[in-house]
Amino acid sequence: MSTKTTQPAISLPIIAQQTDTHCGAATLQLLFSFVKKNFSQDQIAAAAGISEHIKKHGMQPEHMPKAIRKLAPNHQFWFKQHATDKDIDILVNKYHY
What we know:
The protein has 5 helices and no strands. With 97 residues, it is mainly α. The chain starts with 22 loop residues before the first helix and ends with a helix.
């Protein structure tokens, strides 16, 4: 019996968070790398206007659009709280995003 392995549809780098409060900045760093934009987590925090408080409060989802608009104005990333695999499947396969 042979086992079939599947390759991921996309290849993304592993991005480590600078600190335990840099999860949002690390997420954007990963997404930016996918569209060939290279920014540090500090640059992302600065673009979001949260450099002074990221170490205490982290980067919240509502901070991300500001960083995206400033650093990559021709790109947009979507966010949905509590998204499931089915939500992503519909987005990709039904709506072709």
